[in-house]
Amino acid sequence: MTDTTTPTSPHGNARSARVRYRHNEGSAARLRLLTAAAEVLAEEGHGEAAMQSILGKALSFLSLEEGLLLHVHTDGLHVVASQGPVAPVGARLPATGALHEALQENALPLIQQDIHSRLRVGRDKTVGLEVLVPLRFHGRSAGLLAMMSARPAAPPNADDLSVLQVLGTILATAHQAASKPTVRAAATASAAKLKQLTSRELQVFAMMPRGLTNAAMAEELGIAAGTVKVHIERILHKLDLRDRTQAAVYAVDYGFGG
Fold first, then answer.
1. Which of 69, 114, 162, 223 is deepest in the core (most CB within 10 A)?
2. pTM of this structure
3. Quick one: what percent of the chain has pLDDT higher than 90?
4. Which domains does the chain have, with CATH numbers?
5. Are 59 and 164 in contact (CB under 8 A)?
6. What single-letter DSSP state applies at residue 121?
7. How crowded is residue 173: how many other Cβ atoms within 10 Å of its Cβ?
8. Which residues, other chains included, contact 235 with Cβ-Cβ below 8 Å and sequence gap of 6+?
């Protein structure tokens, strides 16, 4: 009987072995990243040092040199960790352009190559690769993990991005846990401010998330449009808010309108 099996060449065996090795190494690296992040949070808590350490581990995972960890606040994105010639810790960045896109509901990691990055400081803002990973907590955007390289670099593969999304969830959860005392204190202070509003001002305040005009509010309340305008001006002053948009967001946070 004739053996019709095609013999495997030594080169083919070596190539297959290299593919298996790279696959196994990649899987091990992904597991190490998540394990290391969990260990940092368990040992160091949720402070700036812990966030800086995790950012460094994420950059090493992708072999990138520069990055930031950004948390969402009402006035933009705040830098809580940074490495390289990028915006420093404590800086505030407006959530516009690619940053805004990456913060949208159900947004996936955003990969950009050969761009001018708003995250870099100094004259040279050119980066060969920028990766923006959303931080999500219960479906809501909590911030971004931004990583980049000045030089051209290979983008992360699908498996790497999946692991980075898991890391993003871990970081978002850690941020929520760390901010609870602050949130409670802010809520107490805000509740005290709301007590400054009269019953009519509170009615107007509750309607603001609906985006109604002064005339529409006036019709519902049975008062003059000019009176509504005065109420809104007093609301902004008493609550120390910039404009109607900020007041509407503030109202939604308290469960009004929407």
1. 69
2. 0.63
3. 39
4. 12-180 (3.30.450.40), 196-253 (1.10.10.10)
5. no
6. -
7. 17
8. 197, 201, 204, 205, 241, 247
